[in-house]
Every structure is written in C-alpha cells, then in structure tokens.
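Quick board copy: two proteins, each given as sequence then tokens.
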Amino acid sequence: MLTVLFIVILVVIVVLAIGLYQKSTNAICLSKKRLDGKTVIVTGGTTGMGLRIATDLAERGARVIIACPFEDEGETAKKEIIKITENEQVVFKLLDLSSIASIRKFVNQIYETENRLDILMNNAGIGAVDEFITKDGMSFIMQVNYFGQFLLTILLLPLLKKNATNLDPARIVNTSSVLHLLGTVNFDRLNNVKYWYPVLFYANSKMCVVLFTHELARRLKGVNVVVNSVDPGVVGTGIYGCMGKIVGGFITLVAFMFSKTPWEGAQTALYVALDKEAGMVSGQFFRNCKLSRAKKAGYDDETAKKLWEESVRLVGLSDMEVKQCIYS
C-alpha cells in the first residue's frame, strides 16, 4: 500500500514539475503579420489546438479552410470562428486522413474552388488509439498522423507554388511531437499492428513527420516553398480521450490541469507560419517559438529517402504525379 502511495505521489510530483516547466518556458508568437488575400488550410482545425490556429489566422484576414472528418464538428467550428473573428471567409471541408479516396476528393475540391494556397497547417492527428489496418492497408495511427498528410502535402504542392515568391514563400507546417524521441523507422514493420503498442505507433508517426520534413525540404530546394516541423509540447486537448473512459479521462484531466492550453500549444505552429525569420529556413524543427533540433536520426538522409520512396508506394502516387507536383 505504501509503495503504491509513493508511486502515485512521485507521478504527481513529476507531472507538476513538467507542467510548471512548460508553463514557465512557453513562448508566444508575437508576429503582427496580416494575411489579407491569402488562403490557408488547417487540418484538424475544428477543435483543440487546430481551432486556435484557425481562429488566429482568420483574425489576420486570411481565407481559412478547416478540415476534419466530422461534419457537425466542422460546421460548429466554422460558425464559432466567424463569430469570434467576424471573418466570413471561413470554409469547412470534409477530410478523412485515414482514407486515400477522401484525401484525393478533398484535393480535387480545393483545386476547383481555390486559386491559391499560401499556408498548409498539417495539424490533424490522433493519439494512441486501438490499432487496426485501414482499407488502404496501413496502420490507422500511421495513416492519419503521417501517410495521409504526406499524400495531402504532395498533391497540394502545385497550388502552394503558384503565388509563392522568394520574399514571401508558401509555408508548410508539420506537427510532430516530443514523443518523436521514442520513435523509430522499421521498414519491415511500418504498419504491423501486432508488433507495436499504440503509443509507439504514435511516436513512430511523429518521427516520420520529422524525416518527411527533412526530405521534402531537400527536394524543394530552389522552390519558393518552405517546410518545417514543430513540437507544440504537451497540450491539454481531447486527443487523450481515445485511450478509454478511465485511462483517457484521467490523462485528459491531468493534461488540462498541468500542461499547455490549446492556445499555448498553437503558438509555435503560428510562429513558424508567420514569422519572417522562420520563413527563411526549411527542413528544420521548432520548439517554443524558436529554432531547435529533433533527435539526430531525424536528419538521416538515407532513412529519409527510403521513407519517401516507401510512402510514395503505400499512398499510391505515380511517378508522373510526383514529378508534376515536385518539379513542375
């Protein structure tokens, strides 16, 4: 009994220490940049950190497209953003990152309705949910957190390049996590739901985001599009609810009490999307509104290249599509 009590007290102390450290070191995006006439897409922009990001960008005058797989949630978020910002240029579109068909449909709709895209915020993600193989043959966590965003980003590149300039490049912001530190890339088991625990799948997906950012920046060298990844820190959102009523509920409670708020967690992504200096680098990793470093393995050229090739194969991109999107 005393041992259990000691462990509980120790956990509470550690959580409090992490929470206090995060609160005391959290930086705020101070950019006053306006986005009038510009268009942004925020995946997962209907709740939590994504909703705060979308609201901020709408307040700056941007046309904001929020995307998620739930229509009611999307329409509610759209109305909330418009009410807060008085910006009527807020659009909701359905997007299920666990479905290649949904991603391609979404992209087709974007090209039909939009004549420019200035910022792509790859914010959407899921936590350590119960795993299964999607209809597309990938792990659910990996497809939502990485493979789906990989496909979405590649297909949207021509629109991102359309109005970008050297002085004002288009920006791609990929959301990673501190848990990328636990992630590995095992090409024999990328989507093996019997091998990885869900939390490790999550960590692996965030490691893949770092490697993708590194490789895409290399391939876009000389193009007026920059891509960077961010670690928002431990943010108190509803993402932990997917871990079950008891465990998920407890973690959510602790997260809301001691971690960053969604608004605080959104600051680094906003900084990378808006700050002038952040727009001058590509393939980098940001934390607390400043340039940081991911773990060393996130910059391995050979692994990043191999992951790119495997990702292209798994999401069904043709060589012609890749060539047109990257190099045309």
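And the next:
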Amino acid sequence: MSFTRKRGFYKQDINKTAWELPKTYQTPTHVGSGAYGAVCSATDKRTGEKVAIKKLSRPFQSEIFAKRAYRELLLLKHMNHENVIGLLDVFTPASSLRNFHDFYLVMPFMQTDLQKIMGMEFSEDKVQYLVYQMLKGLKVGVGGRHSGQGLCGEVEQAVMGCGSCHLQFTFLSPFQYIHSAGVVHRDLKPGNLAVNEDCELKILDFGLARHADPEMTGYVVTRWYRAPEVILSWMHYNQTVDIWSVGCIMAEMLTGKTLFKGKDYLDQLTQILKVTGVPGAEFVQKLKDKAAKSYIQSLPRSPKKDFTQLFPRASPQAADLLDKMLELDVDKRLTAAQALAHPFFEPFRDPEEETEAQQPFDDALEHEKLTVDEWKQHIYKEILNFSPIARKDSRRRSGMKLQ
C-alpha cells in the first residue's frame, strides 16, 4: 500500500521486513523478532549512541493488539528510572492519521540479559549490586491495578543484542520505582533483566499481554520465577509478587541452579512447599480458592527449610534476605522498600538513589472497550505529543565488571 511518507525517512529491508526510519538512525541491524514485533539496533547519528528500535507487528490488526500497543507506548513513556527501560523516541513514517499503519519505539540498547549469563559464577558483591538495582527499579512499580487477574507479559528481550534468540516481548519494571507508580510486573525473570558490561541493570518487561486475551496465543509462561499466588490465583496478591521473583533470581545467581524448576503447576507448588514448608491454619484461612484450601489441608505440616543450610555458600545476611523474600504469605513478604533497607545491601546503599515515581501510571483507558480506529487515534496523538525527557542516570559507578 502506498502512502505519503514524511520527509527525512528512508526505507530499508531488514531480515525480510520493510522498515521506514528517520535518517537520524543509521546502520540498522537485525537483532531479533517474535510474535509481536521485530527489533534492530541502530546508531543515533546525533549522539553516536547505539539504540534498539522495535517495530510492532501489525499493531492495528485487532482491538486487542491495538490496546496492547497503546499500553506499551504509555508505560515506556512513563518510566524514568535508570534501572527501568524507558523510551528515547517514538516515530511513524505516516504523514497523517489516515495513512497511519505502523510505529516504532526507540529504547536504550543493552548488551545482554541475565538469562544468558546465569551459568557464570557470581561473586557475592556482584549479586548485591545487581539485586540492589532490581529492587530500586521495582520500588516504583507499574503494572495495572491489583485485581488478582495476572498480567502475563514480558518486557522486550529485544532491547538486547542477543543474536539469534527468539524474542518474546514483555514489559519491564524496576521494582521500587515501578511499584510506587502503581504498577506490578508479575513476570520478572532473568530474560527480562538487561545488563551491560559495567553490571548496570535495567528491568525490561511490563506485562502487557493478559491471560484473558484469546489472540495472544503462542505465549509460553515461565513459571519458575512466578509467585505461587500468581501461578495458582489462590489468594489476593500485591506488589510483593515481584519480590518473590527477585528471591528466585538471587538464589539462582548464588547457586548456579534454578531454585524451583517445576515441570507443571502442581510440581512447581510441590517444589516451593519443600522449601517454604506446608503452611498452617492461619495461612490456609486466607486462601480464596476452595480447591487450594483443601489441597493444602490434606498435606502433612512441614517446617520452613533453614536457609543457611539451603544456601551454604551464601553469607548469613544473604540467606536472611532470601528467607524474607521467599515468604509464602504475601502479607509477611518484604516490600521493595523493606528489602532495600536490609543490611545485605549496606555496601551499595544510597537512599537518595532509591527514588519513587513522581506520579502514578495513568491507565484511565485500561477498562475501555474501544474500536481499532479509536485506539489508533489515541496512539497517533501520543506519538505527536512525545517529547524526550531527560533520563535519570544518577548512579555512582561501581567500577564492577560483569566478567
């Protein structure tokens, strides 16, 4: 379909896909592709910096895809924290709403993600620094209201130079920052945590796609890092779902092995209960799900494992933090702010860096049922109104190297 393209754009085929880019972005190179889009790296000739550009795959093919594209754009625009991926630019080659069919998101380019380096041996100071950054990001959360309906998204692994990997697109959220914005990640895992050679970390995935979306097929949930209350919908949940995930990731960094590698949901729960112990009546009465209640009541009581024995190579402080993050009861599990105050992070802690979002994420259209054309109008307006914000980057450099 031919249409009027804005001046200053050029067209290029990248990995058999037509891209239309502003001349600002040079030497585009394919990074990866997945169900919801493709990503290339490019050089911003204004700054000389490498960026990641995502082209959404047919964002207006249905109401679900259009709403998802709108939410992704809004979340990325909202995020302004050094440990959360944010939006550097957004553009469309279309010269008017009438011929608006595609748009592109520009984000910082990160060199790798935690998933790809999980096999390496992490010293405890690296674990401290990386987990500290995760929690700072999370303290300001983004993730929709706490409805109990899990969001099953993943932030863009595509923001990273991961070669031939198959990319699934998800949202990201550094916890302290993200949570303060009223957002919950719900699907934090090593592949959603981008890192560079200086051990600097960004949360990538904000949980765009929802379980209830019938069109979002082909999505494979990684349950190993998910909080039991999200996997089983057995009780209310809050922002500490992300803290459980951080605990699982931290444990894996310390041991080199996935902590709860369930073959299915029941096996996942069995493995979790071997560590947390089978809870008693106080916990069981909080469960909303009758089947979950009767199942837990049918199990013989067992105590929580001693985390100093479970993680013999970890320091006592590391074991104590894991014990408090991997708490079955969401009302007793640490929040991001409480975890940041734990003595384990004393060597790196700077409360001035532990910022919170200036304002909550505005999801006013979250429950609106709009047509594709209406979503398209909202997205086009957001693109026209976009102006880059000064990205926060106040971190003291740790002097630490990943390898």
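Board note added afterward: DSSP finds 13 helices and ten strands in the chain.
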